[in-house]
Every structure is written in C-alpha cells, then in structure tokens.
C-alpha cells in the first residue's frame, strides 16, 4: 500500500524531563520520562501510531450505512552502527493490528477499497522485519528479511496521504498477483538491492516469494509462516529525481519506470485445457500458463512553489500500468492521477489537499468468462467493463501528533459492474462516500 499508518500503545506517560507544550510536542505521549530520547541517542527509534476511519455511503452500493476501520502500527528502527558498532547496518520491525470491517466489503463490494486500512480478517499480524547493510559510501544497500513491495516500488509522495488503497498498491497488481501480492499487511520473505549512484538516480530490484500466503491453510494469518517455494516475484525499477535543488526556477519532479515478473503458473480466467469455456462445466481443469508480468510508469511533478517556500505549492502526479497477458489477468490496464497542494490555505503550511482518480479496465478473458456464463446458463449477469473512483482529501495538521482528514469518494461501477445480491441482472449502483480519518502519533 506507500501508507501513513498511525497506532496507539498504552497511554501511561511519565512526566517528561524536558516537557514541551501539549500541542507542540512531537508525539502525544511525550518523551516517556526521558526514555525515548535516551533510546534515540543509542540508535533505537520507536514509532507508535494509529489511523482511525469513520465513513459511510449516503447512496449506492449494496446497502447504505456507516462503518469503522482502523490500524494500530508499532514500529522499531535500529541503527546498528550506533547501537553495536556495525557500520552501515540497520534493522526494522513492524506489526499491524487491523480493526473493524471496512465499508467496501460490507456496503459497496467494490474492488479498489475506499480506505487503505481496510483488510479482512481483522487481527494482529507481523509486518516488515528486515536488516539492511550499506556499502561503498552508501551507494549500494542490500536488504534481507520480510518485506512489502508497496513500501518500496511505484511510490508517489504526493498521493501518500490519500485514503484509497490503490494509492499505495495499484489495483491492477492486487487483482493480478496471487493473494494480492506482497502488500499490506502481508510482508513476504524477500531480498532487495538498492543502488544510488548519485542523488538524482535510484535503481532497485527485489525478489519475493511468489505467493505471500504460502501453503498454510490459514493463509499466513499471523505473518510468522515466512512462506517460501511458491515461485519468485521479481521487481525492477529505475527512478530519476530531477532538479533537487530547485535551481534556475525549475521545479523538482520524480519519474519512474519499472515492471515485475512472477514465475508461478497462472490459470486461464475463461478457458479449460480441452479448448472449451470453463462456463461449459465439462469437468476439465483451466488452461495453465507459465509466468506473468506487468509494466508501469509514474511521475510526481511540482508545478510551482509558493513564494519563500521549498515545498508549498501544487504537484501533479500519476501512474500507468499495463498487463498484456489478458488470458491470465483480471485487469488489463490501470491509470491513476491527480493534483495535490501543500499549504493551500493561508496560515496552514503543513495542510495537504488533493483531488485524484483511479480507473481499472478489466481484461477480455475476464469479460468473456461472464459472457460464456450467460450463454451456457441462460442468465443475464451484467457484463464487466471497468471500475473507477474520484477522491477529494483535505488533511489538517492540528499538531505534530494529530491530523484530521475529511474525505469524499465517488465510486463508479463497483466491482466493475458486479451484480446486485438481490437482483443479479442489475449492476451495483455507483456510491457516494463521506469519511473522516484521524491520525494520532504516540
């Protein structure tokens, strides 16, 4: 998912050695009586955060209503050079405590979940858990452990605070990879190599286990199974970060090109291995294909900067994804984009505003399977085409530890014209969603 997750520990807090004002301290629970500063001096940083979403659809979907979803995320980062004298080495560990059901699964039945905290089933799960070693004056970094691809590939800074799940993990990847791929909350055993030959260029590649759930019957519910042996998912990405210093009045921007390949076998979505449609129910298994791949490009470009500021002003951003093997992929192409503005309101330089959209086009094989089903079974289920959404966010930074974010989302063709549960001849209606996200850092 590129996600901003905030979580809550116990709220006991000793009086700080160097107290600051309640609303200007960096975290709600303060310095823990000096313990937090002491640990940071020794290279150990705790991040304890909570995201809470309350949202509801006023029309559309399969029913109207209000739901809650939330995420508590404790994290620890260790500089092992400071802590143990291992120069260039660091370590990271995180966990997820997923709360609530979420509006998409209960009320909308859309594919691109309205919030990036929503996940089923709710519960506690180990997240990323890795060590990293840097070499050659930090030009090369090697990371080993349990890693999420959404935190490392095709990230776009300007959309990171937005709420839809696809801003952190493109919907085309979630639909075309086994069990949605190595994304929140399913970190996967992996190795990642990052090369920064200069400040402008970053080249990175990674190999993940091909299926984040592995072979466990419970689907790696705790994140402690560390699955291996289900093929290899390989990522490769190049990023160009131009005009970092903002010289000559030119605006900074980041441009990325990349792709992934999964070595597993993938089943046809519409055809059996005897040449007949799966909908014919001949008993033959689906056709099987070796491998799958996808290509992408993204950008995040500043348009201008407000006077006497380095980061306030509008950015335009977007990404385009293409999966050409339609016989094994549910989604053939996907595009997202938008406009964000930091400091739009006078006197509020940290607030962020954004308007964005996502569009996911279903593959010909996925569409054919529904059409074959209608033909063989004599039904009139709606033919799939696309799912889309438009989203508006305003994140108000109340203090360093508190942000409030109202948002509005309009969902178009939920489930790519999925049939209504009460009448499978009609597609689920478009839905208008209002919500409020609260971010708290302890």
Please specify the SSE layout and strand pairing.
Elements: H1 35-41, E1 44-61, E2 65-79, H2 80-84, E3 89-100, H3 103-108, E4 123-135, E5 140-147, H4 171-176, E6 188-198, E7 201-209, E8 232-242, E9 253-272, E10 286-302, E11 313-322, E12 331-342, E13 352-362, H5 364-377, E14 386-399, E15 402-412, E16 419-420, E17 423-427, E18 429-441
Antiparallel strand pairs: 1-2, 1-18, 2-3, 3-4, 4-5, 5-6, 6-7, 7-8, 8-9, 9-10, 10-11, 11-12, 12-13, 13-14, 14-15, 15-18, 16-17
Question: How would you portray this structure in words?
Answer:
This protein is 9% helix and 48% strand. The model is unreliable at 1-18 (pLDDT under 50). A 16-stranded antiparallel barrel has the order 1-2-3-4-5-6-7-8-9-10-11-12-13-14-15-18. Strands 16-17 form a two-stranded antiparallel sheet. It has helices at residues 35-41, 80-84, 103-108, 171-176, 364-377; strands at residues 44-61, 65-79, 89-100, 123-135, 140-147, 188-198, 201-209, 232-242, 253-272, 286-302, 313-322, 331-342, 352-362, 386-399, 402-412, 419-420, 423-427, 429-441. It has 442 residues and is mainly β. A hairpin with an 8-residue loop joins β11 (313-322) and β12 (331-342).
